[in-house]
Amino acid sequence: PPLAALINADDFERSFEKYGPRKPWAYITGASNDLLTYDANKTCWHKLWFRPRIMRDVKAITTRTKMLGQEVTMPLLIAPMGIAKTAGDEGELALGAGAARGGIIHVQSTAASFSVEDILAAVPKTHPYFFQLYVDRNRKKTEELLQRLETMDQIKAIFVTVDLPVVSKREADERVLEEQKVSLYSGDGVTNKPDKKGGGLARTTGGFIEWQLTWNDLPWIKRFTSKPIVIKGIQTAADAKLALELGCAGIVVSNHGGRALDNAPATLLSLLEIRRDCPEVFTRMEVYVDGGVRRGSDILKAVMIGAQGVGVGRPFQCAVAYNTNGVEHLCDIFQDELETAMRLCGVTDLNKVRGDMQYLNTSELD
Ligand code: FNR
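Structure tokens predicted for FMN-dependent dehydrogenase-domain-containing protein:
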């Protein structure tokens, strides 16, 4: 369908399901085992209701904010996703260029289809970038990668993903027995070893991820980078506290979009647990959340709980089928939905309602 016919984030996934190739569709939209965490991520946002305030002047509003010191048009990240060429030939080049047009930041995956140099070349020089790091079992490779990134001023932070020490069982991805042709999709970070456990693209490309990574390795990572470190994949207040104590700049509350441990809690529940048990995390670090965010109103909810911003994954990967224009169009949709939700809630500046739970009713989640 023409891009203009796509009017919300789910439309991008539905369109890819209908018209996209089977194997990439199974890889991109799939999740672990019984999809319990995948489903819960979404339905929890649906159960969080607003307490709108009325009769306020909502003509002039702003969605602008900062992420790790970087100015953005709205608090939305394109979550890191591997091998974006599965969705379209431009892959991460479209994600980067589309994010720049939308004024938001793309977090590039270690497992990208292009090298970081090629991706940055597709983005205006002044536009900030974040890099997602999977530590390699061959630690020398990680050291070299971090040293390479250290020379790139455009990359403003390193997001270290920690929720996937082993790639999980993704049954849709394993059932579609199309020839894998991983080499078609892979950039310099991707290992390409066929996996004995099923035929999933995820298990084929993710076999390099270090499974012996611990909190004690943070000083080792810091030796090779001066950029702020954000831990992606925090799911409990206890771990959020550890990240804070160890001097991280931020965390992403994430369960990998339901693609890691099935029956892990919905990220909204983890976010609320951290707020309840360790509220200082929100004032002393930047807290991000991803998983099932599909509406501008979900962004507003996350900010009201105290998040600095949210990440969105699958819909953006599916937007790559429409190249840069698709990614930009999805940014526009989120921008419009966020502004509309703010006005209808009586909110004119996100930075004034961050952490202000008086706008939220959590009774269906209690
Ligand atoms: C991911 N995710 C991910 N995370 C990461 O840190 N490094 C990666 O390489 C990938 N790869 C990846 C590929 C694909 C196709 C998907 C869908 C996801 C997880 C991603 O960053 C994010 O946590 C979730 O996608 C958020 O959930 P939603 O928005 O997709 O529901």
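The mean pLDDT is 95.
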